[in-house]
């Protein structure tokens, strides 16, 4: 099985072979904040039809380089496939932009195919911890951490920074993904797709009853993840690109411009089935 980054590029190319993708209309990268605590975490790739792909922009302090890329207008008016192909790159700037492009392509194709997203199921609520569970997290989800610890259910959190590691009864923070092997439920932040750790993470989740990847940047098609044992994706769908961008520029909450959704493995037909209902490429 190819690495997950290569698999996502394969799917993007298959989609582009079947249907004309709308070109990139703009790339939004927020201006640097005067104070570190006020920095915005997300940018976006916006296609000509209004499809929006959200991207996390604080990996490896890439914001200045991302802004330079946007100012060069290298991708303006081009197919998002050109940007998406860089998802296999080790360059964090190119990989960040590629994830935004993949998310925008997914938004476009799901809407084009008439796929009905589930806006009612809470992805995190599916991980309601029960006695006997051993919970795992890749990334830190504060609301859920509090609930788990109050219920005295064992919790393991995987972090990238060694200085955050700690061990105490029922609570482990570690950089060692092998600690996930004893977990019954694992919740991952969607940013794991940017640091190339996901394949290793999922290798250590094979015994888990449930694995989910959630976050605003989890707007990608779920097929490669479902193929690897993930059963739930929780992302954010931008319904109004203009309102979303205005809220971002004003540093306001996204509000009704954005809606959280859940895709579960059971009931999802797969991208090939979705594409089968479309006409050929114009």
What does this protein structure show overall?
The structure is a single chain. With 282 residues, the chain is an alpha/beta fold. The protein has two domains: 4-118 and 216-277, Enolase-like, domain 1 (2-Layer Sandwich); 125-214, 3-Layer(aba) Sandwich (Rossmann fold). Helix content is 30%, strand content 20%. The protein is built from nine helices and eleven strands. It has helices at 4-18, 63-72, 80-84, 92-112, 142-150, 198-203, 223-227, 241-249, 271-276, and strands at residues 24-28, 42-47, 52-56, 135-138, 155-158, 166-168, 171-174, 185-189, 210-214, 232-238, 258-264. It has an eight-stranded mixed sheet with strand order 6-7-5-4-8-9-10-11, covered by helices on one side. Strand 6 (166-168) and strand 7 (171-174) form a beta hairpin. The longest helix has 21 residues, at 92-112. It is globular and about 55 Å long. The model has no long low-confidence stretch (mean pLDDT 90).
């Amino acid at each position: 099985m190819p690495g997950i980054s290569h698999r996502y590029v394969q799917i993007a190319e298959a989609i582009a072979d079947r249907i004309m993708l709308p070109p990139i209309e703009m790339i939004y990268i927020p201006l640097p904040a005067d104070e570190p605590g006020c920095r915005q975490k997300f940018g976006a790739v916006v296609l000509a039809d209004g499809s929006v792909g959200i991207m996390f922009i604080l990996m490896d302090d890439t914001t200045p380089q991302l802004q330079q890329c946007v100012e060069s207008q290298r991708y303006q008016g081009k197919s998002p496939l050109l940007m998406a192909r860089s998802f296999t790159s080790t360059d964090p700037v190119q990989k960040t932009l590629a994830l935004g492009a993949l998310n925008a392509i997914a938004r476009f194709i799901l809407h084009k195919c008439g796929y009905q997203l589930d806006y009612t199921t809470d992805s995190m609520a599916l991980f309601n911890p029960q006695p006997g569970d051993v919970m795992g997290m890749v990334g830190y989800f504060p609301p859920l951490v509090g609930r788990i610890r109050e219920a005295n259910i064992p919790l393991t959190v995987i972090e990238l920074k060694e200085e955050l590691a700690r061990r105490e009864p029922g609570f482990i923070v570690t950089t060692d993904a092998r600690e996930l092997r004893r977990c019954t439920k694992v919740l991952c932040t969607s940013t794991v797709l940017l640091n190339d750790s996901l394949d290793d993470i999922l290798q250590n989740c094979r015994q888990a009853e449930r694995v989910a990847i959630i976050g605003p940047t989890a707007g990608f098609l779920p097929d490669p993840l479902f193929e690897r044992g993930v059963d739930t994706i929780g992302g954010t769908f931008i319904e109004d690109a203009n309102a979303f961008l205005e809220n971002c520029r004003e540093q306001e909450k996204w509000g009704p411009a954005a809606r959280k959704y859940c895709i579960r493995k059971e009931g999802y037909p797969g991208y090939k089935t979705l594409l089968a209902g479309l006409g050929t490429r114009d």
